[in-house]
Design a protein that fits this description.
Rossmann fold; seven-stranded parallel sheet; oxidoreductase activity; EC 1.-.-.-; SDR family oxidoreductase
Length: about 260
């Protein structure tokens, strides 16, 4: 039986690495995001790399917008009868994604930074998850949320770390409510992951080295580190793991 996997943010970074992981293993993968061209490029690249895998389904939409998520739900229900794995990898720090001048000064700027981070990181995961719950295989379904080391250590201004931390009680509550149906819910908290667009072009070599110095194993994370952890959580071998926040950050959360 072909496993069906939906990945938000599947066009780049950790989401793309996760899509590649499941495609390599013959899964039917659907990737969701706001940038259709990025998703289409990812689908073409995956098809070229793993020609034996089913064609990757591409669905563009704003996951922070309820009507658009309803449309995504309808599209997926038409194309996939049952869903095995849902990976919520979409998100990002809005202050890393947009120039500082995008945000006004004063309380208006504070409100927008917090609202935008909450919308992109918390609400996007919650809306997609709630929309697709009826399609999840029961028993056997898997939901995986992407948190961050910032949920534990802060993010320098509160709004990104706070948005990621909000996923933790959601993870616990969802795991409890779905446990009786044989569906597991877990979150992963990555630390510094290189080879992604999280920092844009703003990451200097000095900051790169400083991030590595925080780890206990002396290296940066890579998207495949997170993708393989997601793959394990989605496996039958991890059926008794639920309601957990898995640290994948080289020990950086503990500090040195």
């Amino acid at each position: 039986m072909t496993k069906t996997v939906v990945i938000s943010g599947g066009g780049s970074g950790i989401g793309l690495a996760t899509a590649r992981y499941f495609a390599e293993r013959g899964a039917q993968v659907a990737i969701i995001g706001r940038r259709k061209s990025v998703l289409e490029d990812a689908a073409v690249a995956i098809a070229r790399e793993f020609p034996q895998a089913p064609n990757v389904l591409v669905i563009a939409g704003d996951l922070g917008n309820a009507p658009e998520v309803e449309a995504i739900k309808a599209d997926l229900s038409d194309r996939l009868s049952t869903l095995d794995v849902l990976v919520n990898a979409a998100g990002g720090h809005v202050l890393r994604q947009f120039p500082a001048e995008t945000y006004a000064d004063g309380l208006a700027g504070v409100a927008r930074r917090w609202n935008d981070n909450f919308r992109n990181n918390t609400l996007a995961a919650v809306l997609l998850t709630e929309a697709l719950l009826p399609q999840l295989r029961s028993p056997g379904g898997r939901i995986i949320l992407l948190s961050s080391i910032a949920a534990y250590r802060g993010s320098g201004n509160g709004c990104y770390g706070g948005a990621k931390a909000a996923l933790h009680p959601y993870c616990f509550d969802l795991a409890k409510s779905l446990g009786g149906k044989g569906i597991t819910v877990n979150a992963i908290a990555p630390g510094y992951v290189s080879e992604t667009g999280f920092f844009g072009t703003a990451l200097s070599d000095a900051l790169h080295q400083a991030k590595i110095a925080e780890t206990m194993n002396g290296r940066a994370g890579i998207p495949a580190d997170i993708a393989h952890t997601i793959g394990w959580l989605a496996s039958a071998e991890a059926a008794h793991i639920t309601g957990q926040i898995i640290q994948v950050n080289g020990g950086a959360e503990r500090g040195r």
